[in-house]
Write a structure and sequence with these properties.
Length: about 375
C-alpha cells in the first residue's frame, strides 16, 4: 500500500522574504508553484497566468524559487513519516510517498499526520491506494483523506475524469469517446497501438492505475538535531556546555532511537555552533567504530564540544550504513537452551538479556500490536 502526502502553501509558508501588505506568486521553471492564499478570493489558482493579475488593493510580486532551498523545512516532515512507513520516496519538498506493509500502521500514520498538520498550523492532503498514481489521484480528487482498497480501485478509475491525467494525447483520446481513466485502461493494447504507436503500453498502464516508475526508496544519508538556546523557555540566552547537557541528552536520545529503528549506525559526527562572543565552532570526526549506542554518542559529543557559551548548536550524524546483526555461536546453543547461562560467554549472555528502556518507533509499536491481535505467535 502507498500513501501520498502533500502540504498546501508549503513554499509561501516558509518563504523567508515575505513583506507585509504584499501578495506573492512563487514560480519554478516558469510555472506557478505556490501563491499567497488570499489570492484565491480573486479567482487565482496554479493554472492562472501571473501576467493576468491586474491592480489589486496591494502589490503582487512574482518571484522564482529554488526548490532545494526548502529541503531543510521539508526534512522534519519526511523524518516524521519515516517512523511509520517501510520506505519513503520524495517527489518534491512538499510532496512524498510512503510505502506500508501493514494497513493498520498506514491508518495510524494518516491519523497522526492530520494531527501534526493542526499542530503546525498547516493544511495538507493525503490519499492511499495500490500504487503511487492511485494514491496521488485519491489525494487530489474527491476521495482525499481516504485509503482506497484494492477491490474498489477499478470503480474509482471508472468515475475519474480522463482530464485528471496530464496527457498530451488527451484531445485525441476524447475524440475516441473516452471520458474516464478507467475506460482508457479497458482499451486493448492493439487498439491503443493503432492510434498512439509506442505510447500505447504507457497509456494502458496509466489507465489501469499503474506506475510508470516503481517505488524509489530514498536512502537515509544523515540525521540531524539542532537547538537555539536563545529561544529556550526559562533561558533565552547563550548556554554553557553544562547547562546544555540535558538538552544534548534528549537530542541524542532521539537520534539514537532513529538509528536503531532503521537498523543504522553512524560513521561520522559533525558539530556546528554559534558562540556567545561571536564567530562559530565547527568540528567533524570519522568514527573508528560506527555506532548507534547512546552512551557512546554522548561521550564523543561531550569530548568535541567547545568550552564556551553557545547560542545555537547543530549535531549531524552522517556516513550511515546498515547495522550488522550479531550472530550467536552454534557451539553454545545446547548449554544456553538448557538454561546453563554461566557456561555461555559473558558477551553472549549479555546480548540475550531483555533490553529494558529502549523506545520503539511508532511503526514498530503498531507492528507489535498487530502481531498480538491477529497472529498466534
Amino acid at each position: 500500500m502507498i500513501i501520498y502526502c502533500g502540504l498546501r502553501h508549503f513554499y509561501i509558508h516558509h518563504f523567508e522574504s515575505l513583506r507585509q501588505n504584499t501578495y506573492y506568486i512563487l514560480t519554478h521553471n516558469k510555472e506557478i508553484w505556490d501563491f499567497s492564499p488570499d489570492l484565491k478570493k480573486y479567482g487565482f489558482s496554479n493554472l492562472a497566468n501571473p501576467k493576468t493579475i491586474r491592480h489589486l488593493n496591494q502589490p503582487v510580486l512574482t518571484i522564482p524559487i529554488n526548490l532545494d532551498d526548502f529541503n531543510k523545512f521539508a526534512r522534519p516532515w519526511h523524518d516524521f513519516s519515516r517512523q511509520y512507513g517501510d520506505g519513503l520516496e520524495v517527489e518534491y519538498p512538499h510532496a512524498w510517498y510512503l510505502r506500508f506493509k501493514q494497513p493498520i500502521i498506514a491508518e495510524q500514520f494518516a491519523e497522526d499526520f492530520e494531527k501534526r498538520l493542526l499542530k503546525k498550523d498547516m493544511s495538507g492532503i493525503w490519499g492511499g491506494g495500490q500504487s503511487k498514481l492511485v494514491a496521488k489521484l485519491v489525494a487530489h480528487n474527491f476521495l482525499s483523506g481516504r485509503i482506497l482498497k484494492f477491490e474498489n480501485t477499478q470503480k474509482f478509475l471508472n468515475q475519474l475524469p480522463l482530464s485528471r491525467l496530464p496527457l498530451p494525447e488527451l484531445k485525441e483520446l476524447k475524440r475516441l469517446g473516452l471520458k474516464t481513466v478507467g475506460e482508457l485502461g479497458e482499451l486493448s493494447l492493439t487498439e491503443l497501438t493503432n492510434h498512439f504507436g509506442n505510447r500505447a503500453p504507457i497509456l494502458q498502464r496509466l489507465g489501469r492505475g499503474g506506475d510508470l516508475m516503481p517505488f524509489q526508496n530514498e536512502e537515509l544519508l544523515h540525521l540531524n538535531w539542532s537547538i537555539d538556546c536563545t529561544t529556550l523557555e526559562g533561558y533565552f540566552r547563550p548556554l554553557s556546555p553544562m547547562e546544555l547537557q540535558p538538552y544534548l541528552e534528549k537530542g541524542l536520545t532521539e537520534l539514537a532511537s532513529k538509528l536503531q529503528a532503521r537498523s543504522k549506525i553512524a560513521g561520522e559526527i559533525e558539530i556546528k555552533t554559534q558562540l556567545e562572543k561571536g564567530g562559530s565552532f565547527h568540528v567533524k570526526r570519522v568514527l573508528k567504530q560506527p555506532t548507534s549506542d547512546l552512551d557512546a554518542l554522548l561521550r564523543m559529543i561531550s569530548a568535541l564540544m567547545p568550552g564556551e557559551k553557545m547560542t545555537k548548536i547543530s549535531i549531524l550524524l552522517g556516513a550511515l550504513k546498515s547495522a550488522t546483526t550479531t550472530q550467536l555461536s552454534m557451539f553454545f546453543q545446547n548449554n544456553f537452551l538448557l538454561g546453563d547461562t554461566h557456561k555461555v560467554p559473558r558477551q553472549i549472555a549479555e546480548l540475550c538479556k531483555a533490553k529494558v528502556g529502549i523506545e520503539l518507533s511508532r511503526r514498530e509499536q503498531f507492528l507489535q500490536l498487530w502481531k498480538e491481535a491477529f497472529t498466534d505467535e
